[in-house]
Every structure is written in C-alpha cells, then in structure tokens.
C-alpha cells in the first residue's frame, strides 16, 4: 500500500512539474506579443495571395503555426537565458513577464523550437528560405554571444528587422516571389522604431547594469525623436506603395508625438502597443483581402 501511494505521489509530482514547466514556457513566450511575429504572416499572406484558395496554402498555415508560439519561445527563450543577470533588476519581470532562474526546461525548449524553424524548409518554397534563416540567425544573434546585438547602440535597433521576416517569408511562400522592396524597408523601419520605443522603460535598469542600447545612448527625449523618425520614414515608404498603407502607418509617428508631449508614463504607454499593432495589422490584412475579393 505504501509503495502504491509513493508511486501515485511520484506520478502526480512529475505531472505537476510538467504542467509547471509548460506554464512557465507559455509566460516566457510573451502571449501579449505573439502577434508581433504571427501578425506579419497574416499580412504577408493577404498581399502575396491572388486568389482566395492561396490564402489557405499549407505553407502559409505552417508559417503561421510556427510564428504564433514556437518562434516566440525560441526568440524570448534565447533572450532570457543570456539576460539572466540583467533581468534580476528588471521591474517588468516582477509581474508581466517571466524571470528566468535557470529552469532546466528552457534550453531544450529553445533548441526544439529552433529546430522546428529549420524543419519548415522542406514545406515552403525556396523563395521563403532566406527570410526564415534570417529570422533564426538574428533571433539568436540579438541576445547570444559573441555578437549580442542588443548591447550595441543602433545595431540593437537595426537587427530587430527580424520581426518583419515572418511576413516576408509568408509573402514569398504564397506569391512565389520576393515582397516589394518598399514594403520590406517600411516594415524594417517600423520594427526599428517599435524595438527602440520598447527599450525606453528599460533605460534606467539597463544603465544600472552597464547595458548600452540605442535608448540608453540617446536618452528618453531623443529616443522619442528617433522612434518618430523611424515611424515617419516607414509611413512614407508604405505610402509610396499605396497612400492608404501610408495613412495606416501614420498612426505610429503621431502616437509617439502624443505620448512624448503628454503626462502618460512611457512604461504604461508601452503596454498599449500590442493592441495598437493588432488594430493596424488587422486593417492592413483587410486591405489585402479586399483587393483579392474585389480587385
């Protein structure tokens, strides 16, 4: 009887540990930001497709499934592993994000999700391969030594073009050709501004731990200006493709001006952007679908 009880208790304990590990990975993947990678896939598919049937290509579904959760586990897992010491003083880790403390499930999860990215190659056209490879390389190099782009001002911002690579991959996979250069430039500039804006709340913690970023180098006021310039240039690039796209992206430079000149704390405004990005992304996607349906 004792042996059976011990076996049941051991089984329950293993089950509880597994649930706790998966729960931690879920929080680590930043569900609030899932659409930062998966959203561009939807936009890319909407503009790469020329018929309704192409919207449901297996390659498009595979890319969306990967970039919705596994890619986020990969990206933020690498980040958290190599930011362990820094994050000990990061207030965002106290409630809204997970704090990595050496949990053994994280490195294998990062390796697995990185491998899943490589496993996409046989299932998508060759035109999409450079974008998937670029995401995996930049996703690791942003946080991991020896390059660790996130600790070099300007390179930390520029390397965050990785966020538009899922969209470019989806466009290429569905259209069979590369996305328009202006769309890539506009998306890259948007990602640069988004990343640097998100670093503003971390300026003081980063300075205290000796981390150099574009935001710590510029200071809060000039970082607002930098983000505004990136987003304005992004809106101009998209506007050159279609004025309606430029109008949608104009939300960002106008928004940063409103935040910079208001009394709203930036660490509060920062958490508005997942909703803003979702609305703008939905508008862009609907625009692409409108063209498919009505020409």
| The CATH class | Mainly Alpha
Label the CATH architecture.
Answer: Orthogonal Bundle
On the 0 to 100 scale, the average pLDDT is 89
Poorly predicted ranges: none
Helix content: 55-70%
Strand % is: under 5%
Count of spatially separate domains: 1
Helix count equals 16
Fold-level CATH name: Farnesyl Diphosphate Synthase
The arrangement of helices and strands along the chain is: HHHHHHHHHHHHHHHH
Q: Outline the biggest β-sheet.
A: none
The total strand number stands at 0
Keywords: Membrane, Transferase, Transmembrane, Transmembrane helix
Membrane topology: Multi-pass membrane protein
GO molecular function: transferase activity, transferring alkyl or aryl (other than methyl) groups
Transmembrane segments: 33-53, 59-78, 106-123, 129-147, 168-191, 248-266, 272-293
Provide a concise account of the structure shown.
With 295 residues, the protein is mainly alpha-helical. Helices cover 70% and strands 0% of the residues. The N and C termini lie far apart (73 Å).
Q: What does the model show?
A:
- This protein has 295 residues and is mainly α.
- It has a single domain (33-294), classed as Farnesyl Diphosphate Synthase (Orthogonal Bundle), CATH 1.10.600.
- It is built from 16 helices and no strands.
- It has helices spanning 2-28, 35-48, 58-68, 70-82, 84-87, 106-119, 129-141, 155-158, 165-175, 181-198, 203-208, 214-241, 243-249, 251-260, 266-269, 273-294.
- Helix 12 runs antiparallel to helix 14.
- The longest helix is centred in the C-terminal third of the chain and has 28 residues, at 214-241.
- It is globular.
- The termini are far apart.
């Amino acid at each position: 009887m004792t042996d059976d009880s011990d076996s049941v208790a051991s089984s329950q304990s293993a089950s509880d540990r597994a649930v706790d590990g998966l729960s931690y990975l879920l929080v680590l993947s930043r569900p609030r930001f899932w659409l930062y990678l998966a959203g561009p896939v939807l936009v890319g598919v909407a503009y790469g497709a020329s018929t309704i049937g192409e919207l449901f290509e297996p390659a498009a579904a595979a890319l969306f499934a990967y970039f919705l959760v596994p890619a986020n586990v990969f990206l933020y897992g690498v980040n958290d592993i190599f930011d362990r010491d820094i994050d000990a003083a990061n207030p965002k880790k106290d409630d809204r994000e997970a704090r990595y403390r050496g949990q053994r499930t994280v490195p294998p999860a990062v390796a697995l999700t990185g491998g899943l990215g490589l496993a996409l190659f046989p299932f998508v056209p060759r035109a999409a391969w450079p974008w998937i490879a670029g995401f995996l390389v930049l996703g690791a190099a942003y946080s991991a030594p020896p390059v660790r782009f996130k600790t070099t001002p300007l390179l930390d911002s520029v390397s965050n073009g990785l966020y538009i690579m899922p969209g470019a991959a989806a466009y290429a996979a569905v259209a069979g050709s590369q996305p328009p250069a202006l769309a890539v430039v506009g998306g890259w500039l948007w990602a640069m501004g988004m990343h640097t804006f998100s670093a503003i709340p971390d300026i003081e913690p980063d300075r205290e731990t000796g981390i150099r970023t574009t935001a710590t180098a510029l200071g809060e006021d000039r970082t607002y200006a930098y983000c505004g310039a990136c987003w304005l240039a992004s809106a101009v690039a998209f506007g050159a493709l279609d004025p309606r796209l430029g109008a949608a992206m104009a939300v960002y430079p106008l928004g940063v001006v409103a935040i910079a000149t208001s009394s709203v704390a930036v660490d509060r405004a920062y958490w508005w952007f997942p909703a803003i990005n979702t609305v703008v992304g939905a508008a862009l996607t609907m625009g692409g679908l409108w063209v498919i349906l009505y020409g």
